Amino acid sequence: MKDREENIKKVIVFFVLCFLSIITYLIYFNLYTADKIKYDISNQRVIEEEKNTIRGMILDRYGEILAETDKKGERKYPFGSSFGNVTGYISNKFGKAGVEAFYNNILLGREQFLGDFVDVFGSLRQSVLGQKKKGDNVVLTIDSKLQNKIYNSFRNDKGAAVCINPKTGEILAMVSKPSINPNKIDENFNEYSNDNIGKPFLNRAIQEYYPPGSVFKIVTTAAALENIEDIDSYINNCDGILKVGDKIIKDYREEKHGKVDIKNAFKVSCNNTFAKLGLKLGYDVLKNEAEKFLFNKEIYIKDDFAKIKIKPALYEFNERDEFSVGISAIGQHEVKANPMTMALMTCAVANDGKIMQPYILDSIVNYKGNLKYKTKPEKLADAIDLKTAETIKNYMILTVKEGTAKKARNSIPIAAKTGTAENAIGKEAHSWFVAFAPANNPQIVIAVVVENAGAGSGRALDIAKEAISHYLNR
Amino acid sequence: MELEKKVLHSIYFVTFFLFFNLCFITEKIDLVPLIFCLSSIILIAYSNFIIRKFYPRGDKFLFLISVLLCQIGIVMIYRLDIKTKNFEIPRYALKQMTWFTIGITIFMIILFIAPKMIRISRYKYVYIFIALSLLMSTLFIGKEIKGSKNWIVIGAFSFQPSEIAKFFIILYLASALSKQINKRDIIETVVFTFFAIGFLVLEKDLGAALIFFGIYLVMLYIATSDAKYVGLGLLAFSLGGLLSYFIFNHVRIRVQIWLNPWKYKLDKGYQICQSLFAIASGGLFGRGLGLGYPYLIPLAINDFIFSAIAEEFGLIGASALIILYFLLVYRGLRTAIYSKDNFSQLVAVGISSMLAFQVFVVIGGVTKMIPMTGITLPFVSYGGSSMLLNFLSLGVLYKISEGR
């Protein structure tokens, strides 16, 4: 009998362990698994919850409404298409995209903030009285006037533009054309997704690739300044045509620039000089320099709540014969970029060689207007040293003063670089323009690409110039 | 004595508090829960009064913990009846309340009529005959509900024979193992248990099979005090499990769903995924009674009532429920320790481990800790046959605790 008593006690211990293991498992489940599965699409709670929540607003940096839910529960986007690639859309049929998707949890008030527990009674009252829960508002770094201005100045052209404050990394505008109208997403979704030429769902500012053309000469210049000892006394005799093996690299209209140093070559965007410099530097040095400007790197528009992938600019190819390396130094061949990456490259020049982490979420405020979160600017990379940055900055100022960007001359001192990106044979080249202003104390960096707008940077330059004077004179 | 009173009063308080809360879930204030509350409290108070007066020597905590579990169940079922804002009658809660009343009545009847335990230990072949015929019956006249062919439907009344069979298997094992036993006796129990479990696997009632097996191992261990049988049993279990995995398609499916339910979240794994969503949305404190969406879980009032409780009462409420079950099992095994004769002791061990295994298999299943098998949570889940069986077992357990 005594023996049995002992054994029954052992059975009790066994059951204690069984039950404890369930509780332990439940704790583990709540800590690690729960958050991963909570918002799965097949969880109907998500839909029920969204029905019972008034979705927060999306605002621009000055409090202008970019998206709000009206009394009928419909989502309205006052600016429509010009913000299509930024706000994204929300649809019962087609899901969510853009800010609506990336900051969904904030807009639905699911993110918990430190100050929230003070409001426990408020939310308790809400749920007892059956009031709808109110989501938080997302304030973007975007300047809606600037965004609209740029969007409209594209007129019917395809292309994209990005404006960044180089000192903080705030994205002031991110335009992609053609765009979608989020107000009419349900009606037009199929039309949009079948449009293989316009590709309105493609956010050209961060997801497309273009050859950067002469804009890339900023990288080549930086590489030359840092790697060639006697660069100051370097003189090239440009005769408009450079023979490399059995191929030739031509200057625009085969113009002969004569004897030029690097400064003047930059100013007139001399292909001959930069191709030669590229050959002198070689593939590895150019690649290394490009990577300092975040080519080939994983980069994001990032804050504590979302990571939006940017297609990184690419400088990487396997055919490394002289011709390929030569034209890669002038931004052709396999070199690829989009306005966001070119804006970040320009930021390094504008901001003493440092690139700030780009971000689009300025802050989060609750429905009462109380601040819940504010993004802090962070440094992303040290691209080049101060001296190199200053030198290139001066070249860019000179380019506006008396070089290829003369048309951008303005009461505000602007520093800029033009670009023409050859692409498919038989099609007009893409027109590129990167700039920052005021040149001595940069407030805004802009990178614009206009598809098939022809050589000479004209259309892109006009758009950028208008945007800069609009932004700085507001 | 004092402690019992305190516990009883706490149970009244919790019952009142829960039902009171139910009044405010619907748009209009609903007073029906208070009627439920009042009937429950009267029923509990009255039966407690009788127990104290006529059967004061038994372990009253067995009774108290069980009725508290029943109240939690009825509250949750009532809450799950309210799916829409304009609901009218709490259909299932009303039925469950009836089953609760009948259960208590059965408990009382057992106390009144049950003879001395030792006297019923003689009829071991009767018990096994009843158990096996119940299990076999479903093979021929059983109906497949929820993927298991373990229901018998007679008119409007349907019940699960395996629930009742469990009880008779315990009686059989206790009578077979309580005497002086030799190898032959043990082999006999092995054969009968094997048949019982075999039927259950054929009927796709894997949960019950698992529980039968657990009960058998524990009872054999206590009867023989020999750990080698446990080892052998576990070996046999692994082999049997492996074999049935390869032989039976339904076993394989259960395991696949367990390993990756998300792959089948829209068909075979729908139930378990919905159950996990519910538990996940509960978090630590739960959403609060009436504030979650537990009605989105399929079979929320039966097999998945634990997930519904976890959603609205959170990790804390769920853990409290598990601890309540443990206390019940503990009181049952304590009864076994203090019981006078071998037979009673084995019956008490059998009933306690039945409860323990059942709780483990259900909760483990709906939380995806182990593969899911459709089984009810004792005293809490909706269902007549399980309620009756549980109160029947509780009556026997109480009877045994009297004899200490």
Automatic annotation (TrEMBL), chain A:
Pfam families, per the entry: PBP_dimer_2, Transpeptidase
Regions crossing the membrane: 12-32
Keywords annotated in UniProt: Membrane, Transferase, Transmembrane, Transmembrane helix
Coiled-coil portions: none
InterPro entries linked: Beta-lactam/transpept (IPR050515), Beta-lactam/transpept-like (IPR012338), PBPA_dimer (IPR054120), PCN-bd_Tpept (IPR001460)
Transmembrane helix in keyword set: yes
All residue ranges annotated as the Penicillin binding protein A dimerisation domain in the record: 55-138
Residue intervals of the Penicillin-binding protein transpeptidase domain: 159-466
GO MF annotation, one: penicillin binding
Gene Ontology CC: one annotated term: plasma membrane
Gene Ontology BP term (one): cell wall organization
Protein name: Peptidoglycan glycosyltransferase
Lineage: Bacteria, Bacillati, Bacillota, Clostridia, Eubacteriales
UniProtKB/TrEMBL annotation, chain B:
Keywords: Cell cycle, Cell division, Cell shape, Membrane, Transmembrane, Transmembrane helix
Transmembrane segments annotated in the record for this chain: 7-25, 31-49, 61-80, 92-113, 125-145, 151-178, 190-223, 229-248, 269-293, 313-333, 345-367, 379-398
Membrane topology: Multi-pass membrane protein
GO cellular component: cell division site; plasma membrane
One function term, GO molecular function aspect: lipid-linked peptidoglycan transporter activity
InterPro entries: FtsW/RodA
Subcellular location: Membrane
GO terms for biological process, alphabetical: cell division; regulation of cell shape
PANTHER family found in the cross-reference section: CELL CYCLE PROTEIN (PTHR30474), PEPTIDOGLYCAN GLYCOSYLTRANSFERASE RODA (PTHR30474:SF3)
Protein's recorded name: Cell division protein FtsW, lipid II flippase
Protein's organism: Caloramator proteoclasticus DSM 10124
